[in-house]
Design goal:
75% of the residues lie in helices and 1% in strands. The protein is mainly α and 320 residues long. Helix 1 packs antiparallel against helix 11 (283-311) and helix 9 runs parallel beside helix 10.
């Protein structure tokens, strides 16, 4: 019962936060001047008629009313009108075509980062205060402090330009599961993984170090378990409780941070489309993509909180 009430409360707060942020985003983007980009063979008057039909020239509250009306009555989130490549196409259709590469590079980076980060954290905790621990901790601080786009330039220069192991940018096309496409994705995946590896290593080392000093670890040793047995059976299981939810949060963090990485490596994903919509003042595209990033961030925070109660039955969310 406590969990059910807690979920309802959190979902209500999530929706309220989402609505407030979306209203602020709508007002701010609509406060900018309306820009009409006329392509070759297009009539400016026709474009202006389309704008009037969608109430783009009305006051902002009226625009917001009709924007919501189109969404809830027709499922119409707008069209791309200032992006030449996608002009007059549905925002949802363009988004769906751009989503696969964004999802793939984030999944690949998570698969790459989780075992390496957790492994380094476990090794550092077992070698606490030794040179191995100090070396890993130093690298972790460096990787966390440096922005991901700096790693992107280093990876692009060293692995792509100097060594020639990978192409400088991602291959064009839709065959996302071919070897050549996967190889072209690797520079972006590696660039996104540095921060995640450091985050997992730091979380794992901190939690495992604390668990190893608890009294029940001494009790396990006195009952005849060796240090590796006690570490594997008791310490790691308890240390993983706060670490597994952080994997979800780190995945969302990487996904939101892949905006610049996608631009550097020419990944035809959602991040590049989002930046292009901002530069071109394409209002409908910006609103839809901002809602996407805001929603996954809010849902991720809810999933992380609820996962604590699922992973550890001793935790009861909402109970006093």
């Amino acid at each position: 019962m406590y969990m059910f009430k807690y979920i309802l409360k959190r979902v209500g707060l999530l929706l309220m936060t989402f609505i407030i942020i979306e209203i602020i985003s709508f007002v701010l983007i609509k406060a900018l001047p309306l820009v009409i980009t006329v392509g070759i063979g297009q009539d400016r008057e026709i474009i202006e008629m389309q704008f009037r039909s969608r109430h783009y020239y009305d006051p902002i509250p009226v625009q917001f009313f009709y924007y919501l009306k189109l969404i809830f009555t027709k499922g119409d989130f707008g069209i791309c009108y200032n992006l030449p490549e996608y002009r007059n196409q549905s925002v949802v259709a363009v988004f769906q075509s751009k989503l696969p590469p964004t999802i793939l590079i984030n999944i690949y980076s998570t698969i790459f980062a989780v075992p390496i980060g957790i492994g380094l954290g476990i090794f550092a905790a077992l070698k606490k205060n030794k040179w191995q621990d100090q070396s890993i901790s130093t690298l972790v601080m460096v990787f966390i402090s440096v922005p991901s786009f700096v790693y992107a330039f280093l990876v692009q220069y060293l692995f792509c330009f100097v060594l020639g192991w990978f192409p400088l940018i991602m291959n064009a096309g839709y065959n996302y599961f071919s070897w050549s496409m996967f190889r072209s994705m690797l520079p972006a995946v590696i660039s996104l993984s540095f921060g995640s590896v450091a985050g997992y290593a730091r979380y794992t080392r901190a939690e495992l170090t604390e668990v190893l000093t608890n009294d029940y670890m001494l009790l396990a040793r006195t009952k005849g378990l060796t240090k590796p047995q006690a570490t594997t059976r008791h310490a790691l299981r308890n240390a993983m409780v706060p670490i597994f939810p952080s994997i979800i949060g780190e995945f969302i963090h990487v996904m939101s941070g892949s905006l610049i990485i996608e631009s550097i490596f020419a990944v035809p994903g959602v991040g590049g489309l989002f930046l292009a919509s901002i530069n071109a003042l394409d209002y409908d595209t910006f609103m839809f993509l901002s809602a996407f990033y805001i929603l996954i961030g809010l849902v991720a925070s809810l999933v992380v909180d609820l996962s604590y109660g699922i992973i550890d039955p001793r935790i009861r969310m909402g109970a006093k």
